Give the backbone structure.
Amino acid sequence: MRTTLSAALMGALGLALGACSDEPSEAAMRQAATEFLALKSGQEAAEIVARTGATRTPLSITSFRKVGCVAAQPLSGHDCRFEVGVNGIDKGEQRGRFLKAPDGSLILSE
């Protein structure tokens, strides 16, 4: 009885810790970065058009590589490093906090 209870508690603890350390995948990080860039690029383009009437080439991520992540302390999410290229230009290593949205998708926070 005691062994079964200990095993059940250890299993539950392992699941709880595993859920907390659910590091984002490179694909999910790239998707979140793409959405973040599209939002920021769209806002900036709207401001430029309003001021000058000129248009701008939309920005897009052309390369992305996850370098590594650590759990954000004491807050939620993960602080991650990644290498990114935008419109074919290498932007080097960047840092960002990635958070899980209520729908389970990943968000890159400012």
Remarks:
- The chain is about 40% helix and 35% strand.
